[in-house]
């Protein structure tokens, strides 16, 4: 057969392919029906040719599908495509972003190990480490994201894992991933980066020296707010540990969600580029508004780590934080004056969203902890979607108009 018919041929043809080509084609294996689109294998189990074949597959002596908690062809296509995009030896898909983090810790850490976590990670990630991981005898300490000397100082002989998000949410702080990878290496620990805000279209932590990349695929990988999912990418040695955990414990990705994510990946770079162009324009515009005290966006020359961001990321992402003079009252009135923006804490959607972090995503922190984290009452977070830039600006203008009516 010619051209792309044969699965083996298809994969070998992609060896030197660029990002967009991998995003559209990597991992696909054509079935006997010669389908052009990726097949959705909505099946929980598989049949065997004979009793002996079943025994061999169960024993791992023969190649063959067993059960969808173990493997699923649609999920496998998604995993192979993600591995190709992140430049990883292997990727392992999970039921959500949180189960990707859980699977990483459960697979790679044991009681008595020490884990270092950035202070500015996703809220549920803090709860996972604080309330659950600690319960199983893993020690957890927190470090300020950008403070390389602080990471070094916090390392102990039993430190096994360093965990960060860069840039942080919603204040867009960064860590120099290559430098932090050096700290982890010296320590004999693994560096895991939650790359959800960037996706491999903007940042490739493995190429910078990180060991593990984690995603909530729920966000930009889906890109249209439909499905929950997650994925972990890294070296085969560690990923095989995750495979074992997921097969046993079960927070695996649904094949339907994997199929939706495959469609999302096809347009990933184009979408991220459009998100970033609008976010940059809005960040620059917001910085000029008299009611705005400060804008948090790594694409602005005023951002203290702008040079690092330009080195480490291809573009600066779609999440813009901005602080209004006038505290909570001004922030709430601003939000309530908008008509187009969705009032929700989600992000990574074609629809733009606006959030008041102090009373939502960071609402469970004490006032002191919130102040220490820099989440003030006047802070708003804009997750820029794919609507027309002019319409987004018009909507934000409604917020400013209400404040100016005073
Ligand atoms: C949303 C999010 C998660 C959790 O992902 P779910 O898919 O909602 O479980 C983890 N990390 C970051 C940075 C996120 O934004």
UniProtKB/TrEMBL annotation:
<dbReference type="InterPro" id="IPR054542">
    <property type="entry name" value="Cys_met_metab_PP"/>
</dbReference>
<dbReference type="InterPro" id="IPR015421">
    <property type="entry name" value="PyrdxlP-dep_Trfase_major"/>
</dbReference>
<keyword id="KW-0486">Methionine biosynthesis</keyword>
<dbReference type="InterPro" id="IPR000277">
    <property type="entry name" value="Cys/Met-Metab_PyrdxlP-dep_enz"/>
</dbReference>
<dbReference type="GO" id="GO:0016765">
    <property type="term" value="F:transferase activity, transferring alkyl or aryl (other than methyl) groups"/>
</dbReference>
<dbReference type="GO" id="GO:0005737">
    <property type="term" value="C:cytoplasm"/>
</dbReference>
<protein>
    <recommendedName>
        <fullName>O-succinylhomoserine sulfhydrylase</fullName>
        <ecNumber>2.5.1.-</ecNumber>
    </recommendedName>
</protein>
<dbReference type="InterPro" id="IPR015422">
    <property type="entry name" value="PyrdxlP-dep_Trfase_small"/>
</dbReference>
<keyword id="KW-0808">Transferase</keyword>
<comment type="function">
    <text>Catalyzes the formation of L-homocysteine from O-succinyl-L-homoserine (OSHS) and hydrogen sulfide.</text>
</comment>
<dbReference type="GO" id="GO:0071268">
    <property type="term" value="P:homocysteine biosynthetic process"/>
</dbReference>
<keyword id="KW-0663">Pyridoxal phosphate</keyword>
<dbReference type="GO" id="GO:0071266">
    <property type="term" value="P:'de novo' L-methionine biosynthetic process"/>
</dbReference>
<dbReference type="InterPro" id="IPR015424">
    <property type="entry name" value="PyrdxlP-dep_Trfase"/>
</dbReference>
<dbReference type="InterPro" id="IPR006234">
    <property type="entry name" value="O-succ-hSer_sulfhydrylase"/>
</dbReference>
<dbReference type="Pfam" id="PF01053">
    <property type="entry name" value="Cys_Met_Meta_PP"/>
</dbReference>
<dbReference type="GO" id="GO:0019346">
    <property type="term" value="P:transsulfuration"/>
</dbReference>
<dbReference type="GO" id="GO:0030170">
    <property type="term" value="F:pyridoxal phosphate binding"/>
</dbReference>
<comment type="similarity">
    <text>Belongs to the trans-sulfuration enzymes family. MetZ subfamily.</text>
</comment>
<dbReference type="GO" id="GO:0016846">
    <property type="term" value="F:carbon-sulfur lyase activity"/>
</dbReference>
<keyword id="KW-0028">Amino-acid biosynthesis</keyword>
<comment type="subunit">
    <text>Homotetramer.</text>
</comment>
<feature type="modified residue" description="N6-(pyridoxal phosphate)lysine">
    <location>
        <position position="219"/>
    </location>
</feature>
<comment type="pathway">
    <text>Amino-acid biosynthesis; L-methionine biosynthesis via de novo pathway; L-homocysteine from O-succinyl-L-homoserine: step 1/1.</text>
</comment>
